[in-house]
Structures are given as structure tokens and as C-alpha cells.
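Most newcomers find our protein records easier to grasp once they have seen one. To make this concrete, we reproduce a full record directly below:

===
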Amino acid sequence: MILAICHFFTVQLVDNHINEQNGHFSLEVPDGCLKVLKAKGYSGKKLIFGIRPEDIHRDNAFLKVFPQATMKTTINVSELLGAESQLYCKIGAEEFIAKVNSRDHIAPGEVVTVGMDINKGHFFDPETETTVY
């Protein structure tokens, strides 16, 4: 099931990266967030990472400035909604939606690079479901 409000990924904090549980992506965690997660004892532990569709980007400016926060994903559906498009993405078994500028046409089956604004994401404890960051 795809939720349009927020997407959740099970990750593990290793050094300064979050690694998706099945190895499909590894993203660098910004310093401020990393300090909080480590101070709360989550180094080497599993977390739930949540991010909203509007905080997943495809524009070149974001991808060039934050290459450490990018991943490749397969597009299942590209839904044009005027000034923006919703990209229904898949990475491994995980499905998620990215809201992006509609100026680029992306065909189903195409593999594209997207970037996640980790500073706008949230981390949750997988057992208690409480917000960690």
C-alpha cells in the first residue's frame, strides 16, 4: 500500500549513513541529525525513516548539491498534475511517491535518480514508534 502523506523505510544507522534494510540505498545523514541520533544511542541500530513526497527531489540543483542523498529508482507511474508530477517509484520491494516539477516527461519503467532531503525527514524508534529526530 502506498501512503501519499509520508513514506517509511526501515534503515540502520551505520557510521554517518542510513542503510535501507535490504541494501537498496545508503544515504548520508547530515551532521546535526547524526549527532542527535548517536547521542540517543542509535548508532548501529535500526530506525524507521519517514519522508514526505514533496521532500523527495529530482531537480538537478538538488542532486548536484546533495549527491550523498541520492538513489536510483524505477518509475511505475508518472501522474501529471499541472505544475507538478507524482512519480510512483519503486526501489526493491519498497514503493513511494515523489512530487516533482512536471517539466520533464518520465516514462513508466524508466530508472531515474532522486534525492531525499534528509533534514526534512523524521526518525522513529521501531519498537516504541516514538519520534527520535
Observations:
- Residues 78 and 107 are 7 Å apart (CA to CA).
